Amino acid sequence: MADQSHSKPIHHQEYEKKQHREEMKQQVLTFGLMILFTIIAFGMVIFEVNSYFIIPTLIILAVVQVAFQLYYFMHMKNKGHDMVAVMMYGGAAVAALTIITFTSIIWW
Amino acid sequence: MSTAVAQKRGLGAVIWDYLTTVDHKKIAHLYLVSGGLFFLIGGLEAMIIRIQLMKPDNDFISAGLYNEMITMHGTTMIFLAAMPLIFAIMNAVVPLQIGARDVAFPFLNSLGFWLFLFGGLLLNVSWFTGGAPDAGWTNYAPLSTTSPGHGVDYYVMGLQISGAGTLIGGINFLVTIVNMRAPGMTYMRMPLFTWSVFVTSTLILFAFPALTVGLFLMMFDRMFGSAFFDVGLGGNAIIWEHLFWIFGHPEVYILILPLFGAFSDIFSTFSKKRLFGYSAMVFATVLIGFLGFMVWAHHMFTVGMGPIANSIFAVATMAIAVPTGIKIFNWLFTMWGGQIRMTAAMLWSIAFIPSFTIGGMTGVMLAAAAADFQYHDTYFVVGHFHYVIVGGVAFGLFASLHYWWPKMFGKVLNEKLGKLAFWPFFIGFHLTFFIQHFLGLMGMPRRYWVFLEGQGLATGNLISTIGAFLMAIGTIIFLINIVYTAVKEKKADADPWEHGRTLEWAIPSPPPHYNFVQTPLVRGLDPLWVEKMDGKEGMTPAEPLGDIHMPNASILPFTISLGTFIAGFGFIYQVDDPIWLIAVFAGMGLTLGSMLTRSLKDDLGHHIHKEELEEDIKKGVGK
């Protein structure tokens, strides 16, 4: 992960270059998908699709976008991000619990 | 820069040093002194409460002042005494236990402290400006939203500011423990105190935002005319209760878990044994932290959540007794067959076990939702939570202070005086609170200003008050001990308990400001003990002797926090007169200006050079 490639042997450099190319490809692909999702989202609203369909679809698209953002652009898919993942899922769980309580106990 | 050079400095220089310090050891001193001060204030309030309840129909203080006393006693003890005292121990010990030279964000560490202090000061200023908060430490709406005067506004602003400081501190320790452990110190080799601080910091990270949100809603309701909690305008008062307890229940685990960790280290050291069931202890700590988020509504069984919600929260609450039980048994097994030394720290720790277990047992009783309808808001509850908070947190703080005092101040607290302080406090504690369970079962409600004659409550309350005085005597002896030790006791060795097991005992007491001359190599659980068993003098270094990079001191954390303090007054009083908005703008200007300065000005820290380190080693720092 550290960029000290100048001090590494040639074959290692090549390996890292290949890794970077792979990474770049994934990022461009994800970026394209995210733009596509955004167009779909806006499109559905512009063309006034039935709201029972729009709302869940939008939520699903949003969740996928957040996952793309975290895993591909913020590198959570790479090694050494276990603690980050634990903390984020922990926080999300606590937040979800709060929302569930509010909707089920207070405002049912 | 080397602190090993003992030189006389002026008082002004010392004060400036502490105002600007980013050294975790000095920040620990700051937390200890200010937390100790608030502890005495909170204790004084407790004494006034107990004097008022000494006899039936007493009129020692007025009803309104009594409400302010109970509110400020609870708020002060939880937020301004227990939390900072725990942060004092965390700051003093955690970086040393993991072999680090400071916390991950020294600047933020200082900021966290000053925010806490200014928040606490703001809260206590209310005594002199026409009335302290009087809606109880839980500050339930609508009592709080309709409370006249500015008392509750001080509560909201004070806790918001000090809460921000705590959140910063929690994140700082998370990052420190994740990233700054010495080579070889895997998660499962961390001392249990560090483990529990890690879990505690996670709880702070997840729990405090709920308080922040709740306080913001309360602030808007009281200052800007919103109606989140106003039923008349379509709000809902129960929202405050939920938000408060979503924060408040994890908060009690935030208080107790670090001390569970401290007890584990103390039991292991003074039994000269490895902690029994280390991995089970870690598991139990994590499990308590996890379950701590699932149980908040057991504070609200009587608000009418319905039988299903009540049952779920009752069962979840009872489940916590399992990991806690694991811990109690592991401590007992650690002592079993050990070479036990009855030091003052050990005395407090051993006294903790039965005291806390009683508190835990009444906790399970309260968790039974159907029975809770009888106990709710009686002195039974007061007895219960004082058994866990005093019997757990206060005993733990005394034990930790005795144990780590040499590491913090370079001298071992006098053992005789330490034990002399223990007995009146211990006996007084049980006298004060044990009887309160029965007062509660007899129907004495909590938070009442007076009780009547001829209801059989007089004797119990008198006993309780006598106990409170004994606790005060114990505390005073402890304070005398601090002064006596500072004046009379001789300097402590690196490992004053002789059987030190963890990394902090491998370096001098007090440590040089860079802590470790060379980062140590950790070869197992209880790293110093591992080396001792191999017949070595100290730790094996993990790096060659070289320059050490240290952060620079800065006054900016102080000015950032001072700004919020000034703005706090502005927010509170702009309701009466818009001219106070000047204070809001001036305060926020100072805060944001200081932040901007911090962002724009490069501060790369300084180096301690190899030559200086070699000098220090000659004086015996490195060993």
Write a structural description.
Chain A is an all-alpha fold and 108 residues long. Chain A has helices at 10-46, 51-73, 82-106. Chain A has 2 domains: 8-77; 79-108. Mean pLDDT of chain A is 85; it is low at 1-5. Chain B is mainly alpha-helical. Helices cover 65% and strands 1% of the residues of chain B. The longest helix of chain B is centred in the first third of the chain and has 35 residues, at 63-97. The two termini of chain B are 20 Å apart.
Number of helices of chain B: 19
Give the beta-strand count of chain A: 0
The CATH H-level homologous superfamily of chain B:
Cytochrome c oxidase-like, subunit I domain
Helix content of chain B: 55-70%
Number of strands of chain B: 2
Give the CATH class of chain B.
Mainly Alpha
* Assembly of the depicted chains: heterodimer
Extract low-pLDDT stretches of chain A: 1-5
Family (chain B): Belongs to the heme-copper respiratory oxidase family.
Pfam family, one (chain B): COX1
Catalytic activity (chain B): 4 Fe(II)-[cytochrome c] + O2 + 8 H(+)(in) = 4 Fe(III)-[cytochrome c] + 2 H2O + 4 H(+)(out)
Keywords (chain B): Cell membrane, Copper, Electron transport, Heme, Iron, Membrane, Metal-binding, Oxidoreductase, Respiratory chain, Translocase, Transmembrane, Transmembrane helix, Transport
